[in-house]
Amino acid sequence: MGKIRLKDIDTRAPKSMDKEETKEELAGILQELDDLQNLLYAESKHALLVVIQGMDASGKDGTVRNVFGKLNSQGVLVKSFKAPTAEELAHDFLWRIHKCAPQKGYIRIFNRSHYEDILITRVHSWIDDATAYKRMDAINDFERLLTEHNDTHILKFYLHISPEEQKSRLEERIHNPAKQWKYNEDDFKEAKLWDKYMEVYEDCFHYCKEIPWTIVPADQNWYKEYLIATTVRETLRSLKMNYPGLKK
Length: 248
Fold this sequence. Notes:
Rossmann fold, 10 helices, 248 residues, alpha/beta
């Protein structure tokens, strides 16, 4: 299979999809997710790691809120990875990631993730390509460790937004009082590096594909949330979980 080319993938829902019908179906999926998450927590035999990556304003926060926000917070944890601290920089780049991996019974959501260490770092030449490829090997080993030794199921989503939609959303942060707290001048600077980001993301999809990526059209939030919720539901269904019986 060749490399994923993001420019060849649509950022919008198929024209055959009806927005209102899809949102109605999504409501039922979210209700089932609530039941499945409770079952996951009760059985405590599996863990689920959900990795969400995407350009600025692609809808990562909204995905966390609208897909996972109504699940029982006792068994769903969200971690957002910012710039590493001095302590974290003194360790290997996966040190801060590994200690946040989900324990059995839990869903852990990474809003940005270990992939930042091969994305923004390459775009800004903070690491060279040789280091980046070594890190990709380490990421593959890390994800294999979680799946093979802790029964962790990993879902990796890239929120695929168009540059036009990104520009519109970033500008909304200037004018909409409810979103002004999100405004960051640096987001506009990063947007100018779009082509370079697409290049390193495509490299990431190609070399870190043992656990495949799901490219999610993200220009329309209702469709993005529907695809992610459906994928999470099907993954949890596939675990064939059962509630534990009475303890002897």
